[in-house]
């Protein structure tokens, strides 16, 4: 009948459509794989950043504590009359600089944590946040009808 002849004599149209569909599928798969690899890389980068910033924060906290001890010692020396007030001001300035650096590191750690959550697929818009009921509900209540 006419259906068979149309199929036989379509000039390769169906074959071309099939090949085009396969090519589109292959392109979609490649794009998906690249997206997944990019997401994994982003998560790994943010985890590494958090690890590095955590270590920097530990070191900086030690510097803050050492500077605070130095301020105490220098202040006691000033009260005893063994050093001038300029030494007290200098150690206070160093201590304040260490505290500022510690706060900046905390800010960088918070930013890195937010970027990690985003890389993991989390969001920060109000509609993506859990409701008050979700937050206050006990874990054993979540699966009840």
How would you sum up this structure, described in words?
- With 145 residues, the chain is mostly helical.
- Helices cover 79% and strands 0% of the residues.
- It has four helices and no strands.
- The longest helix is centred in the first third of the chain and has 68 residues.
- The chain is elongated, with a radius of gyration of 32 Å.
- The model has no long low-confidence stretch (mean pLDDT 86).
Question: Which outline best applies?
Answer: elongated
Total domain count: 1
Taking the alpha carbons of the first and last residues, their distance comes to 60 Å
What is the CATH architecture annotation? Up-down Bundle
The fraction of residues assigned to DSSP E strands is under 5%
User: Which structural class best describes the helix and strand composition?
Assistant: mainly alpha
Q: H/E series, N to C?
A: HHHH
Name of the CATH class: Mainly Alpha
Distinct helical segment count: 4
According to DSSP, the number of beta strands is 0
Main β-sheet, in a few words? none
Q: Tell me the radius of gyration.
A: 32 Å
Which range best describes the helical content: under 10%, 10-25%, 25-40%, 40-55%, 55-70% or over 70%?
over 70%
Mean pLDDT: 86
Poorly predicted regions are none
CATH topology title: Outer membrane efflux proteins (OEP)
What is the CATH superfamily label?
Outer membrane efflux proteins (OEP)
List keywords for this structure.
single chain, 145 residues, mainly alpha, Outer membrane efflux proteins (OEP), 4 helices, 79% helix, elongated
Write a brief structural summary.
This protein is an all-alpha fold. Helix content is 79%, strand content 0%.
């Amino acid at each position: 009948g006419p259906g068979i002849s149309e199929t036989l004599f379509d000039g390769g149209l169906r074959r071309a459509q099939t090949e085009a569909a396969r090519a589109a599928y292959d392109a979609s798969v490649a794009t998906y794989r690249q997206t997944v690899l990019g997401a994994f890389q982003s998560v790994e980068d943010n985890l590494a950043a958090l690890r590095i910033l955590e270590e920097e924060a530990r070191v900086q906290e030690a510097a803050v504590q050492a500077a605070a001890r130095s301020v105490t010692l220098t202040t006691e020396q000033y009260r005893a009359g063994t050093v001038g007030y300029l030494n007290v001001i200098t150690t206070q300035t160093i201590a304040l600089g260490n505290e500022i650096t510690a706060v900046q590191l905390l800010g960088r750690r918070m930013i890195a944590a937010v970027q990690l959550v985003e890389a993991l697929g989390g969001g920060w818009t109000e509609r993506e946040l859990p409701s008050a009921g979700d937050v206050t509900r006990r874990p054993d209540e979540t699966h009840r009808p």
